[in-house]
Prior knowledge:
The structure holds two protein chains of two kinds. Chain A is of the alpha+beta class.
Amino acid sequence: MKKLGAVIAVLVLAALATFGLASCGGGDDTTGGSGGGKQGGTLNGTYASFPDYMDPAISYTAEGWTAMADVYIPLLTYKHANGEEGSEVIPGLAEELPKISNGGKTYTLKLRPGLKYSDGTPVKASDFPFAVERMIQLNSGGSPFYLTIEGAEKFAETKQGPIPGIKANDKTGEIVINLEGPRGTFTNELGLMFVAPLPQDTPIEDLSANPPPGTGPYMITNSKPGKSWDYERNPYWAKANGKAMPDLPEGVVDSAKMTVIRNPQSQVDDIEQGTYDWMQNPPPSSRYAEVKEKFEGTQFRVEPTISTYYFWMNTQEPPFDDVKVRQAVNYAVDSKALERIYAGQIAGTQQILPPGMPGYEQFELYPHDMDKAEELMKEANPSDTDITVWTDTESPNNEAGEYFNEVLKELGFNTKLKILNADNYFTVIGNATTPELDAGWSDWFQDYPHPNDFFQPLLAGESILPTNNGNFAKFDNPAINKKITKLGEEQLGPDQEAAYKELDEEVMKEAPWAPYGTRTLSTFVSDAIDLESVIFNPTFGHYLSSFEFK
Amino acid sequence: MPTEPSAERGPWSLALRRFLRNRLALAFLGLFVLIVVFVMAAPLWANHVADTGPNEEHTVEQITVNGEKKDVVTVEGKPIGPQWFGAGGKFFLGADSRLGRDEMVRLMYGGRTSLQIGITAALIATILAVVLALLAGYFRGWVDGLIARTLDVIWSLPVFLIGLSLGIALAVGGLKLGPLEISSGSNWNPIFVISIFTVPYIARPIRGQVLALSEKEFVEAAVAQGAGPLRVMFSEILPNLASTIIVFFTLMIANSMLFEAGLSFLGAGVQPPNSSWGTMITVGVELLNIQPLLAILPGLMIMLTVLSLNIVGDALRDALDPRGKARMDAALEFEAHGGVTAGAQQGAVV
């Protein structure tokens, strides 16, 4: 009888423990606490669109970078922290920050020993030049950052390697990178996942459906482009990489499942009901005020960003090859209207550099003035007024595109509006073979806290690429190109910041864009998640490794 | 002197009498006429009352409502609600979205687009279906086999999913098919998609009727008198299909409008900034929690239009051919039996 009682007591305790664990939010494998929250569990997250690519070499959107930030670690990386602190470059796979010599032209790094990819393959120093070559071969939008490496430009043309400017020694782990000239932003650029080392048998093709193995605490499994993808712990993180990179967090949840839910209303409802734990994109404008009021401080947090939202105009084709036409558009676009369209999630600005970026100083060259705009149009008298305006389906970008379309109509253009699925919008408008790329919507969030990041990839002639183009305006002004290159070579200081301020104005006088604002984003999680623990990095957004169940 | 009506009146006159006796159908016909008048009056309302076009944006503007200034769209992005006549008819039903367009004007213009697409797509589908059914039913053999199997293939496809994919492709890239060129964003794209995919719904039952009619004595007599296939098909058989075609055409308008609404709701139909009731529901759904009328009103308009067309279509069928249901069932049975043996029996029923 005593024995039976003991058995019953054990069974009751086991049942209670099981129910207790099962009721822990989305967690299905909680194995005891660590820090403030519970270790383990499965995070159910949602994105409004699938990332442009699920391949570190070619992804160039906030969605893609957030999705892969804890999967692919470059030689250098960014501190896992909110706000300004998160802009600090720290060693990643490299033992320490690079030694810069030879007048800023040589970068020497050393790979940490004992690192392994998630499939068990050892990480070698020569994986770095392979990753750079693969990225260039795939015509990645990030390739302009690395074309200053000796021989990289030639490699980009011929696609024949190796790139002579990168020497890697697998025995010692030493990597020496020689640049054609000094480049003040190169340390930041080594921290981007475009050049995160990959095993050398990785195919030279878009691997979104079957992402390559990485070195981070998580690995992507079961990627279904357009629909969903999963994360599991990288088995070699605990065994090798985690010990080698103690500054990087190992992550709290054991796994995660990300689902594309294209209706942001449903996303909000799902978070409120606890069906999902987190949404990557902000709540839709129509629900923003309500969510903010109800959940700020408990499940919701406003995240300032360093970003510029803008309309681009193709400066190489009529009618936008005429600066007067572009200036007219700038006078006609009213950032106050766009503030309302974005339901207060945008602060109006009319320049390339956003607030918070070194070199930013507010100016307003084109205060909203329809009369002035019409006057400039009359002076320009463009012969070709048939244009196509592009935007994506994600709200309120679609409405911003409709607004822009109407503004152009008011100026006398015959417009055709094309609204593309957000999954492939940038892929389509970044492809030179797409016809009628006249004007459209875009945005830009900083890759790293350096003003060059808003000029070189977006407004330098060398950044006009056949695919994955980021210079949608196809802006190629020799004098401005020269300044961008020169400033890019220098380390950032007060003189350079002043020069970037001048450059900002100079570019806006040429008006390749009609910028209209800088965006705030948000963190919105279910009641089961500890909001305090979630990190929103200015470059990579939300880190998966920072989520934990209460 | 009293006369015997049936002795003097023709079949069309009798059908009209039967239709006029159907009060429910008359009421819904009246409703449909009202809807048509409502949408046709769009330019009048836009120019003389609302003083704005359907795509004109008023995001940062203010209007005076009963002497009080109000934002068309608030700083938080909330569009103004219905103002009825408080602003002299401006924003009668409020603003449609954060772009601050007049909902009433867009509802009227959107209705024009929905009806235009519905009627045009139904007309094209009906013409194509009748021609194919005549060819298949009259010539039989391999012609019938080819046409019937092609229709079967289209019928067996998940119509809406394929229509959606095709609609999205056409909305982005347009269509270039030999001399036929439709630019992306044109309303001809949804018309093309809808008409292609609805052809089998009309062609199959009509083919059954053609098979049955082509064995009738009057057809044999025409052939014996030396009439060629074209004359037999279009002068002898086609007039006997008139009542069925009218009924199908009416019902297909309703069907096409629903198809268009679905395509537009999913972004594959009418392209912004143009409105249709389908696109208006898409915009309205996003603001459902703050301005529910924006989704409800276009949905209600679609429902009333489709309901009225369906009831009128049913009444027309009853009026034009009181034995229509029996005949239609028999025609389908005839087709199911391969169109020969049962067809001979069917001749007696028709």
